[in-house]
Input
Amino acid sequence: MRGPQARRALTIGAALALLLTVPVPVSAGEPMASVEAGRALFLGHAPREGPEPLAFLRGSRNGVPASRFACANCHGRDGLGQGEGSLRAPAIRWPDLARASPQRSDAYDAASFARAVAEGIDPGGRALDRLMPGYALSGAQTAALIAYLKTIDEEQRIGVGPSTIRLGILSAGTGDGFPAALAQAFAQKLPSPVFGRRVELVSLDSEDGPAGERLRRAGIFAAVGLPHGSRELWPELRRLGIPNLFPRALLNGDEPEAETVGLLPTLDAIGRAALDQAITCAKGPLTIAVGGDPASARLAAAARARAATRPGLPAPILRPVAELIRDVPRPGQNDGCILLFAEPEAVLALLSASAPWRYVGLLDQFALARERGIPSRHELVLADPRIVEGQPIDSPAFARMIAELIERSLRQAGRQVTKSGMMAKLNQTRRAPGSNAQPDRPGEPDMVRFRKIGKMSGIKAP
Ligand code: HEC
Output
């Protein structure tokens, strides 16, 4: 039996897997509920309970939800401040506020902080720049913000030890070679430690406790390569401010890049690319056959949004797959391609019923059809099938790419690495021209990249 404190850890070294007891990080003496509420306010997440407070731009009487003007947007997720010159938002970790600064000779206390946040006046009576919004917070919400600002520094460095950086992985399910591949990739990419630290992979697999509790106990700097089936953990990572790095699942494409970075094309990018592909073979109005699952709906919405940007293109006709299966278009009714986004079983049923049609859709489903002996004519390599299928991928190349990106960003973030510092570097690297891991550019989905990912994971384009 595994106790709640015991977890499987994969450490880079001679042995890839060994049993370790990880020390539980102790949080500073602030009440947990307060810290959580303060973090939500600071990061612009919806509060767990109660209505969201309002923010007021200077000179405006109309409040907007405070999450639209999250403190982190201007002061940085680490509270260290950002911007330049007179537009600089200063550092607002509590120790920064609790002492005098070049701009003000007085230190903040709880009362003067509340006044600054509500009315934009500093302890010396100076009016703060108009850029700093005013917030209508309750006493408890202001206290929660202070509690969070007291712990933000520690939280930003959870998982960073003198000789290790701890990343969380999941290997739930049998036969998943990914954790071992990742451990190996780090061993190759990080032959020498970064600022004296090597990467320690901690398994998050556990039967005991709710997800948030498990994550907190694990004390990780970031989670990496979480499989599709672990989505219950994702909101918890977000809530706790733990970066979600390179999940092995398709992202929507609208996730904040300070919280989640992916390596695979997103559903939005796939939807756009599929539309571009389909209009090259559609002769009449384009039909989008859509299944009932959220991913299919997202793909279809992205394709339609893309179509709307094409001058002269008639709006695609959206049809439920189930309806098409009952009423298969006959030859002559549709001479082009049908854009097909649905659950695998629905795709197989439609392909069996209407083999002669050409479809643009997800490669994994066409591969599945081929496996089952259902002939299909199809067009496009869109994603790694094993990921779309929701199965973990076990790709050394994928693991190497991840290890390389993380290693580089840790090096660039420096000795005093914070979660937000590493994320900033990671996103810079991803944006670099020629990077393998460029995020989607809404204007131009990059088919080369899809092919590259297909190739990387050993999938051939049809
Ligand atoms: C749109 C950008 C923006 C947002 C959002 C924002 N701030 Fe500010 N904040 C600023 C700027 C700019 C200043 C500097 C104003 C000055 O010095 O005149 C500032 C100043 C401050 C100060 C005074 C610091 C000092 O040293 O006197 C505090 C405290 C503060 N902000 C807290 C917050 C909190 C808490 C939130 C979220 C609830 C927040 N800010 C959201 C831009 C922002």
In short: Residues 1-26, 383-392, 438-462 have pLDDT under 50 and may be disordered. The longest strand covers residues 6-11.
